[in-house]
């Protein structure tokens, strides 16, 4: 019951238009942790998806006014509004997988709603017919252009073949038909192999959920993973040969990319996986087990504390860095459900600065591994501060120069992918910009960024005279880093915690264009103040 009230209070808070769903939960005083918090978050998000439809039902059945004793127009302080409570309860009754309100039958709000059950269901069918939707799920609000694709990655580590998966999907039980060519939006009950990852990635219609309680999903034969999130592993493992050496996934949980790298290594050799957060490490362990990854040595450890010169990592040739980021590219879960981002621009700038500094530090640490020759850096962010600008700072670092790290050219970074980097963020250098890839929702993926550093003689370097906006400025003074906790999202929308870090040596202290802009603004403000005095 409290669980419904908490979700309803978060909806009320969102109604007042104050930030993200998660932020609204905190602001509404919802303090649940662990599984309970996830459940409340999920209910809030799911309710938002069906909100316009549920509001129509409330209006058509006039349930709120008929049951005004239970759902009064005005509710006491610290209680949710009647409308929001109705929204979450009706969501569970009509759209949840169990199709019921999970509370005692004697709870007055549930009793009141059940009195109108038949009418509510009938109205819902009417709306479905009017909207031309054969399934209720198709009434859900989606992220914009109606071209949402649900991607599913085939996992060869499971020991089953792709042909077996096709047969399963096309069986009478599931009844899918495979198309030879991509069609967008993907038609109902059809699927096809994604044109960029045609050996592993299957594309389904947006509302698909055939994998719920399906043996292939439960048994790790398929993994739900956004298309863009598959790219880093694909780029990292380009040209891999079994006897080349070992790999590192420096920031592994929940483990989607780890399991893909493991599969690309044919589950052979050794993949060292680091995860710093204890909770997320547990998720990683579960994921690796489910995905049958037997070549992964996972540890709960901070990658920045690993010793690049140790014998243990002497055979590591490839490193994936997919560090904590702002998650600004994730559009398919939360962001489209609320109108816009009301975060104050200054705090946003500061947050990006901190993230960029941490991300750069991760790259510079990876550069130190003696045998490393290919490093992929990716984010699920669309901000240049975390993407191209971090890459430029890394390329200009002294360690990159000392160890010969350059940027891999387009030819070895998914050349078939059209959307490349922003030249204006890379000193105007088209070749560098073509070396990295970006993804946007219009590409039917999450917003994403992938870059690849190499030291095999093919690497690109920034031009001698780079764009001053992207210049790295080593900081000679200033405070050392403190462990300030910050929350970010990974590309699957999971909330993660990062602790901001920086080195005392100043190697990773960068001033991004955003920082410079802030300094400029502060100076201008000070000048204006002086003038007034
Ligand atoms: C964006 S997520 C990674 C998602 C993952 N690559 C996947 O595809 O499933 C970043 C992860 O890195 C972890 N992390 C952040 N800093 C770290 C560090 N210094 N060492 C190890 N793990 C770190 C975070 O806790 C978080 O789980």
Structure in words:
The protein is of the alpha/beta class and 533 residues long. It has three domains: 2-139; 149-224, Sun protein, domain 3 (Alpha-Beta Plaits, 2-Layer Sandwich); 229-518, Rossmann fold (3-Layer(aba) Sandwich), CATH 3.40.50.150. It has 17 helices and 15 strands. The strands form three sheets. Strands 6, 7, 8, 9, 10, 11, 12 and 13 form an eight-stranded mixed beta sheet that branches. Strands 2-3-4-1-5 form a five-stranded mixed beta sheet. Helix 13 (345-366) links the parallel strand 9 and strand 10 (374-379). Helix 13 (345-366) packs across helix 14 (388-395). The protein starts with a helix and ends with a helix. 42% of the residues are buried. S-adenosylmethionine binds next to helix 11, strand 7 and strand 15.
Care to give the gist of this entry?
This protein has 533 residues and is of the alpha/beta class. It has helices at residues 2-15, 21-27, 34-61, 63-66, 82-94, 108-114, 117-131, 162-169, 215-218, 227-236, 256-264, 278-290, 345-366, 388-395, 398-403, 430-435, 513-532; strands at 149-154, 177-178, 190-193, 201-205, 222-224, 246-249, 271-275, 296-300, 316-321, 374-379, 406-407, 437-439, 448-454, 485-489, 495-499.
Topology:
Layout: H1 2-15, H2 21-27, H3 34-61, H4 63-66, H5 82-94, H6 108-114, H7 117-131, E1 149-154, H8 162-169, E2 177-178, E3 190-193, E4 201-205, H9 215-218, E5 222-224, H10 227-236, E6 246-249, H11 256-264, E7 271-275, H12 278-290, E8 296-300, E9 316-321, H13 345-366, E10 374-379, H14 388-395, H15 398-403, E11 406-407, H16 430-435, E12 437-439, E13 448-454, E14 485-489, E15 495-499, H17 513-532
Parallel strand pairs: 2-3, 6-7, 6-9, 7-8, 9-10
Antiparallel strand pairs: 1-4, 1-5, 3-4, 10-13, 11-13, 12-13, 14-15
Helix pairs in contact: 1-2, 1-3, 1-5, 3-5, 3-7, 10-11, 13-14
Bound molecules: S-adenosylmethionine.
């Amino acid at each position: 019951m409290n669980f419904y009230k908490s979700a309803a209070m978060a909806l009320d808070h969102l109604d007042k238009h104050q930030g993200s769903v998660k932020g609204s939960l905190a602001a509404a005083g919802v303090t649940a942790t662990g599984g309970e918090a996830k459940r409340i978050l999920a209910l809030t998000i799911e309710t938002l998806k069906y909100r316009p439809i549920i509001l129509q039902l409330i209006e058509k059945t006039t349930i709120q006014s008929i049951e005004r004793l239970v759902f009064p127009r005005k509710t006491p302080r610290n209680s949710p509004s009647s409308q929001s409570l109705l929204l979450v309860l009706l969501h569970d009754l009509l759209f949840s997988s169990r199709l019921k309100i999970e509370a005692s039958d004697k709870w007055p709000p549930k009793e009141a709603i059940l009195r109108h059950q038949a009418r509510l269901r009938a109205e819902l069918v009417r709306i479905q017919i009017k909207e031309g939707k054969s399934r209720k799920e198709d009434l859900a609000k989606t992220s914009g252009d109606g071209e949402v694709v649900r991607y599913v990655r085939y996992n060869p580590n499971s020991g089953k073949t792709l042909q077996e998966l096709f047969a399963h999907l096309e069986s009478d039980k599931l009844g899918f038909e495979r198309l030879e060519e991509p069609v967008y939006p993907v038609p109902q009950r059809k699927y096809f192999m994604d044109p960029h990852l045609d050996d592993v990635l299957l594309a389904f219609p947006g509302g698909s959920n055939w994998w719920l309680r399906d043996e292939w999903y439960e048994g790790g034969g398929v993994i739900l993973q956004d298309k863009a999130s598959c790219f880093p592993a694909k780029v990292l493992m380009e040209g891999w040969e079994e006897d080349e050496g070992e790999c590192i996934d420096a920031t592994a949980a929940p483990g989607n990319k780890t399991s893909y790298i493991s599969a690309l290594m044919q589950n052979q050799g050794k993949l060292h996986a680091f995860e710093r957060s204890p909770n997320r490490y547990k998720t990683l362990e579960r994921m690796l087990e489910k995905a049958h990854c037997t070549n992964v040595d996972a540890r709960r450890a901070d990658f920045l504390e690993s010793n690049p010169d140790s014998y243990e990592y002497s055979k590591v040739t490839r490193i994936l860095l997919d560090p904590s980021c702002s998650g600004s590219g994730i559009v398919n879960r939360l962001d489209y459900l609320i109108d816009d981002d009301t975060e104050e621009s200054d705090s946003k700038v500061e947050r990006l600065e901190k993230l960029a500094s941490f991300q750069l530090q991760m790259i510079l640490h990876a550069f130190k591994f003696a045998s490393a020759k290919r490093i992929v850096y990716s984010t699920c962010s669309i901000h240049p501060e975390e993407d191209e600008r971090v890459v430029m700072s890394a390329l200009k670092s002294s360690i990159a120069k000392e160890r010969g790290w350059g940027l891999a050219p387009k030819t070895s970074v998914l050349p078939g992918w059209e959307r490349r980097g922003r030249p204006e963020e890379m000193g105007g250098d088209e070749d560098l910009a073509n070396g990295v890839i970006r993804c946007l929702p219009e590409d039917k993926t999450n917003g994403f960024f992938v870059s690849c550093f190499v030291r095999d003689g093919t690497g690109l370097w920034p031009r001698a005279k780079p764009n001053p906006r992207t210049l790295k400025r080593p900081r000679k003074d200033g405070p050392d880093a403190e462990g300030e906790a910050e929350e970010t999202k990974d590309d699957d929308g999971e909330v993660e915690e990062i602790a901001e870090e920086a080195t005392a040596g100043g190697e990773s202290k960068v001033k991004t264009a955003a920082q410079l802009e802030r300094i400029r603004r502060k100076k201008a403000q000070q000048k204006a103040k002086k003038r007034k005095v």
